[in-house]
Recover the amino acids of this structure.
C-alpha cells in the first residue's frame, strides 16, 4: 500500500508550535484551538470539542477555578477564537475529529496533548533552545512528547483524508494524560462506542528512531488521591483534649496504608508522597492533607489497594473524631494489547520507510490511561493496541532536556496511517 | 458513749477462717456462706444474698462458667448449706445484713470480701504460715486485708446489735472489689437507696496500728477492658490479602490508645498490659486479644479516656475488616468524702482505745469501687466517708507476705461501730 | 517613698513608636536602635548591645540569613545609625542598660521587645488604627504588649536615674520572647551574674488597669523543635525499595511521640503542629519536616518529654534508614517567684496611684523565658519575681485587635521603679 | 536399565513404623535409631549421625532443653540403643549414609524425616487408624509424608546396593524440615562437598499416584523469627513513666514491619502471627514476644525483608528504652532445579512401572530447605533437582486426615534409584 504523508516541514512546524505552548492537563485551551484550526483547514467531516468530545462528569483532577482561569486568559491572549474558547471554559479541553466515508469499519486513533510542570532547559545544545522553539511558558514543558503525539493525530488525518477508503476514522485528542485525568472521560464519551479497532501510540521510551513496538502493555494500574482530614484546632498546652487532631488521623492512616497486606495475585504499591499540616507547633492541627497513590499489577489489584486505602482513611478519621475527604485525581487501569491487532501492525510496519526494527510486543513500563479506551473497545468486541514509536532522545522523559528526534514525525504518521488504512481496506 | 465490742479472740478466729479460704471476685461462695452463718447466729433482722443483695445485671467481670463451677464445687465440699449455695450459683455472691430498729436514720457500712490470685508465702516468719491459718487454696490469698474487712462487718453488727439505738444499720458485704467488679452492682441494688450515711474502710495502706484516717479519697477513677479482635486467618505466604488481620487491628488500636490526647483538666492514664495472638508465624491472625485500662483524676477524665479507647478499638477493627468486642471488666469512679462526716468520724475516733493518731483526711492512693456506693448516697442527699484503719504490716499489700496485725480487729470494729452509733444517736 | 515618673505623654509617644515598628524575634534591629537612642538621651552609665548584652551562642531559633537580611535592610532605611546596626548584624539584637551608683545591691529588671507575625486590625474602633500608630509593617504586630514592656524599661531607668540610691540597676531589654528564643541567651550573659533581685513583668493577661499581681508563676515549661528527616527519593511505582522514606520515618516518630508515657509527677504535653513533605504522590519522600513541642508542669517534666522525643526521632530515622536533624528553636523552664520578693512588691505596690487591687500571687497561664533569668538569680542566692500589670484590653493577646490601655504606662513604671527603689534603699 | 526394588511389603512395614512414631524437628531420636538400624542391616559402607552428619552450629530452631529431654526419654523407652542415642543427645538427629564404590561420580539423595504437631484423625475411614498404624504420640503426626520420604531413602539404598555401579551414593536423612531448621545445617556439613548431582523429592502435593514432576521449584524464600522485647514493669496508674514499655516497642516494630516497602524485583511477604505480653492491665509490660516471618520471591528479596525487620526491631527497642532479642528459628532460600538434571530425570522416569504422567517442571508452592543443599551442589559445579512424586491423598498436607497412597512407595524408590543409577552409569 502506498500513502502520501504530509510534508515533513509542516509536521515539524506544527510540533514546534505545540512545543512552544505547553499547557497542563485540562488547561490545553490554546492547544485545543490550534488543533481545531488545523482540522478546519483539512476539512474533516466532524469536529467535536469539550463536552461534545468527552464525558465531562468523568474528568478527574480538574484544577481549581483560579488555575483554569489563568490558563484560559493566557489562551485568550494567544488565539483569536473566542467562540471556540467559550466552549472550552471550565477545563473542557480535547477534540474528537471524524472522517466519515460511509459503510465500513470504524477505526480510532488516540493521541494525548498535555504538557508537564517542568522548566525547560536553556542549554545551548538543547535543540528547542538553540532552534528557538523552547517553551514560552516558564515552568511548563512538553517533556514527554505529547507535542509529537498531537502532530501525529493531525498528520494521520491528513494522510487518510487523501486516501481512498470506506469506513470511518476518529482521532481522539485526549487532554490530561500526565495526571491520568482524561482517559476515563474520553472513554466514557459517545464517540468511542462504535470503534472497531483502536490504536494508541507513544514516542521515545528509550527506543531509537526507526524502532517500532507493535504492542506495549503490562502497565501498572494506578489511582492517585488528594486527601484532606479536617478536625478542630485547640491550644496544645492548655486544651489538648479540646482539639480533634487531623495530624494524628493522617499519620494513623498513612502508617496503615503502608501496611496494607501484600496480595497473592501480584504487584501492589502504595505511597504517600506529600504531607501537609500548616499549624504552629502549639496548635492541635485542624487540617492535614496528603497526596498518595496506589498501583497494581492488574486493575483488580489496584482496586484492592484503593478500597483498602479508603478504609484506612475513613477509619483513621473516625478514630480521631475528624472528617476526611478523598478525591481520586487520576486513575489508569491495566489493559493489554490484542494479539491480532499487534500482528497486523507488526506486519504492515515492516515495510515502512525509516523503520528498521519492529518489536512485536514489549512492556510499557509506565501507567497510561489510553487503557480505558482500549478496554471499552475490547469490551464492545473490537481490538486495540498501543504502539511504541522509537525516537532517539538526548535525555529521559520528564527531564528538562527531553527532546524528540523530529525524524520520528513522518515515520510515526506513516506507521499509524498505514495501519489504519490496512484496517479500513 | 460506751460500746461493747465482741470478744477479740472470736474476731481473730473469724478473720483466720476467712484467711484460710480466700476466693476471688464473684467466687466468694464459701465466704458468703460463712458470713450468712455468722449473721444467722447473731440474729440480724434481714439477710439478703446474691440477686437480693445487689443488681446482678450490673456485675462486671464475672468469670466464665467453668471457673465459677470450679469454685462452686469447692464451696459445696467445704460447707453444708446446699440451699444457700443454690441462691449464689452463677456468681451471685455477696450479702446485705440489716438491723432495723424502727424510726431513725439509716446507716450503711460497706466492707469487701474477695481475695487475690497470689500464692501465699510459706516462710516460717510469715504469721499465717507459722500459726497455721495460711491459705488452703494454693495460688489464692487474702493479700489485701479483706478477711479483716469481712470480720469488721460481723463485729460491727454484733456491737451495734447489743447497743440501744433507733434507726437502721445495713452492712454491705461486697464481692469482687479487687477487680472493681462489684461496687457498681452493689450500689445499684435497692438496699442503698434509703441510706443516709455511709462508711467504708480499708485496713493497712502503710499506716501503723492505732492510726485512723477519717477520710481517704482522691482515688484515680479507673476502667478495665477485655478486648477481642476477630478477623480471618489466611496463609501469610500464599494468600496474605485473603486474611482479615486481627494483629494489625490490635496494634493500630493500641498505638492510638497510647496517643489519646492528654487532658487539660488533670491526670489521665492508659495502658495495654496483656496482648495475645496465638497464631503461627505463617498465619494471618484471626484473633487477637488484649487487657487494657484507663484512669482519670476524676470520673469524667476516666470517661473521656474510656470513650477515646472505644473509638480507637472500633475504628481499628473497621480499618482492618475485623470485628471487636470490648467488655468493661472492672470500673471505679472517683468520689471524695463528705467533710461533715469526716469531721464526725475524726471526732468520735479520738477517744477510742488503741487509737493514737487520727488523721482527718488523706489520699487513698489506689482505685476503689466503694465510690459507687458513696456517690449514690451523696446524690440522695446523704453523706459518706471512707476510713483508713492503720494496721502494721510486715509486707506491702498484694505481696505473698502481706499480713494484718490482728490488734486492728477490735480497733476497727470499735472505730466503725462508735461512728455508726454516733450517727444513730 | 516618692518617685518622679516620666511624663505620661512621653511614655505614650515612645510606646506608639515601638508599636508602629513591630519586629519579630532576633530581628528587633530598629527597636534596639530606638532603645539605645533613648538610653543615650537619658545618659545611662553603660549600654551593652548585641553580643555584649547576651551570650550569642545560646540564642535559640535565630531566623535564616535571608530573613535577617530583610529586616536589617528595613532598619537601615528607617534609622540613621549604621555604626550601631553593624554591631547588631546577624540577629544580635537586645540591650542591657546599667545605672551604677557604687556600693549597694544590684537590681535587675527584665523586659522583652519583640513582636508577632499577626496582621493588625484596620477597624475604625481599633485605637492604634484610629490614632494613626498602627503597624507600618504589614503582617507583623505588637499584639502582646512588648511595646509597653520596652517603654516600661525606659521609663523605669528615667525614674530611678532621678532618684537617690546606692547600688546598681540593670535593665535587660530581651529579644525574642515570643518564640522563647532569647531568655536562655540573656540569662547566660555576664550582666546577670551579680544581680541580687530581679523583676520581670507582663501587661494585660486579662486583668484590668489598676490590678497588680506581685508574683505570676506555675508556667508550663516548654521546648519547641524544628525537625527534618532526610532520606532518599525513588519512584514509588518502579523502585519503592530503592528509596529511604522520610515520610515513614516522620509518621512513626510522630505516632510514638503522642504515645510517650504520661508522667506520675504531673502535667506533660506533646504536639506535632506542622508536617510537611513536598514530594509528588509517586515519589518516595526524600525529606519530611515537622514542628513540634513538648511541655511539662515542671522543667524536669519538660526535659523528660524532650528526651523521649529525641529518642523517638532518632530511632524512627534509623528504622527507615534516614537521618534526622532536630533543632530546639525555643525553650522555657518553669521557675516560680520568691515569696519574700512577692511580699515586698505586694507591699509597696498598694499605695501607688492608679493601683486599686493587689493580688499577691496567681498563675501565669502561659510559658515565659524570663524564667531562665529568674532561675539564675535564685541560684546565685538572689530573689526574683514576675509581676502582672493589669491593662484593660479590648481583645485577647495575640489577636489582630489587641491593644494596651495606655493608662497602664505610668502605673507600670511606678510599680516597677517603686519596688526597685525599695530594694535599693 | 533394570533395577531390583525392595519388596513392597517391607517398604510399607517400614513406612508404617515411621508413621506410628512421629517426632518433631531435632527430636527425631527414635526415627534416627530406626534408620541406622536399617542401614546396619543393609550393610552400607558409612553411617554418620548427629554432629558427624551435619554442622551442629548451623542448626536453627532447636527446641529448649526440656522439650529435647522429653522426646529423648521417650526414645530411650522405645529403643534399645543407648550407645547410639548418646550421640544424638541435645538435638543432634539426622543421618548420612554412604555407599562407596570407588571412582565415579558422587550422587546425593536428600530426604527429610520429621513430623508435625498435629493430632491424627481417629476416623474409621482414615487408613492409618483402621489399619492400626495411627500415631502413638498424641498431638504429633506424619502429616506431610516424611515417613514415606525416609522410606524412599532406605529403599533407594537397598536398590542401588544390589546394582552394579562405580562411584558413590550418599543419602542425607535430614532432620527438621517442617520448621526449616535442618537444611542449612545439612548443607553446611562436610558430606555434601563432593556431591556432583543431588536429588530431592516430595510425595503428594495434590498430584495423584503415577504422576512425576522432574523439577519442582520457585519456592518462596523464607525466614522465621522468635522475637523478645524486654523492658521494665511499672504501675500503669502510679508510675507510668517509670516503666520501659515492651508492648509499645513491639507494636511499633510490628506496625513498621507491615509497612516495609514493597520491592520492585518481586514478591515479598511479612507477617506477625503470634503476639504475647502476659502483664496485667495495670502493669507496664516488661516483656513482649512475637513470632514473625518474611518471605521473598528470591533469596535476595527474603534477605531484604529480613534486614528491614531487624532494623524495625532494633529501632523500636531503642525508641522505648527496651532491649530486643531476635532468633532466626527457620530459614529457606530459593533455589531452582537445573534443566539438565530435570531433563535426565524426566527421560528415565517415563518408562518406569506405575508412572503414567511425567511433568518436566512445575512450581513447588511451598518453602523448602532442601534448597540449601541444591545451592551448595550447584555452586560446586554440580546439578540438582527436586522431584514431585505424586501420591493420591484423601486429605491435604498438614491436616489430621492426611495419608499417603502406599502404592507410591515402590514407584518413588524406582524413580529415584533409576535416576541415580543413570547418573552413576
Amino acid at each position: 500500500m502506498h500513502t502520501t504523508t504530509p510534508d515533513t516541514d509542516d509536521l515539524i512546524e506544527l510540533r514546534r508550535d505545540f512545543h512552544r505552548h505547553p499547557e497542563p492537563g485540562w488547561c490545553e485551551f490554546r492547544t485545543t484551538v490550534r488543533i481545531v484550526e488545523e482540522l478546519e483547514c483539512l476539512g474533516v467531516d466532524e469536529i467535536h470539542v469539550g463536552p461534545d468530545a468527552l464525558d465531562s462528569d468523568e474528568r478527574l483532577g480538574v484544577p481549581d477555578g483560579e488555575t483554569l482561569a489563568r490558563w484560559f486568559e493566557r489562551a485568550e491572549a494567544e488565539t483569536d477564537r473566542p467562540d471556540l474558547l467559550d466552549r472550552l471554559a471550565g477545563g473542557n479541553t480535547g477534540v474528537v475529529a471524524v472522517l466519515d466515508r460511509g459503510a465500513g469499519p470504524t477505526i480510532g486513533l488516540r493521541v494525548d496533548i498535555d504538557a508537564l510542570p517542568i522548566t525547560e532547559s536553556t542549554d545551548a545544545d538543547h535543540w528547542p533552545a538553540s532552534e528557538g522553539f523552547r517553551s514560552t511558558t516558564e515552568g511548563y514543558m512538553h517533556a514527554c512528547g505529547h507535542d509529537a503525539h498531537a502532530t501525529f493525530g493531525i498528520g494521520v488525518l491528513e494522510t487518510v483524508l487523501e486516501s481512498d477508503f470506506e469506513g470511518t476514522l476518529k482521532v481522539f485528542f485526549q487532554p490530561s494524560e500526565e495526571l491520568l485525568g482524561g482517559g476515563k472521560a474520553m472513554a466514557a464519551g459517545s464517540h468511542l462506542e462504535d470503534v472497531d479497532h483502536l490504536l494508541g501510540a507513544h514516542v521515545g521510551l528509550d527506543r531509537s528512531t526507526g524502532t517500532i513496538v507493535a504492542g506495549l502493555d503490562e502497565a501498572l494500574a494506578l489511582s492517585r488521591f488528594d486527601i484532606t482530614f479536617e478536625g478542630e484546632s485547640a491550644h496544645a498546652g492548655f486544651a489538648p483534649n479540646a482539639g480533634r487532631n487531623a495530624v494524628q488521623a493522617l499519620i494513623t492512616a498513612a502508617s496503615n496504608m503502608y501496611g496494607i497486606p501484600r496480595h497473592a495475585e501480584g504487584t501492589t504499591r502504595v505511597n504517600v508522597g506529600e504531607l501537609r499540616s500548616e499549624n504552629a507547633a502549639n496548635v492541635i492541627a485542624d487540617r492535614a492533607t496528603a497526596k498518595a497513590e496506589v498501583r497494581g499489577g492488574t486493575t483488580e489489584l489496584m482496586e484492592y489497594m484503593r478500597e483498602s486505602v479508603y478504609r484506612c482513611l475513613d477509619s483513621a478519621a473516625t478514630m480521631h473524631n475528624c472528617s476526611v475527604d478523598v478525591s481520586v485525581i487520576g486513575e489508569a487501569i491495566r489493559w493489554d494489547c490484542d494479539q491480532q491487532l499487534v500482528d497486523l501492525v507488526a506486519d504492515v510496519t515492516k515495510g515502512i520507510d525509516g523503520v528498521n526494527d519492529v518489536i512485536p510486543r514489549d512492556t510499557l513500563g509506565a501507567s497510561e490511561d489510553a487503557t480505558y479506551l482500549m478496554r471499552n473497545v475490547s469490551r464492545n468486541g473490537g481490538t486495540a493496541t498501543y504502539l511504541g514509536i522509537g525516537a532517539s532522545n538526548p535525555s529521559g522523559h520528564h527531564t528538562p532536556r527531553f527532546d524528540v528526534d523530529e525524524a520520528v514525525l513522518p515515520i510515526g504518521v506513516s506507521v499509524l496511517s498505514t495501519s489504519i488504512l490496512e484496517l479500513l481496506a
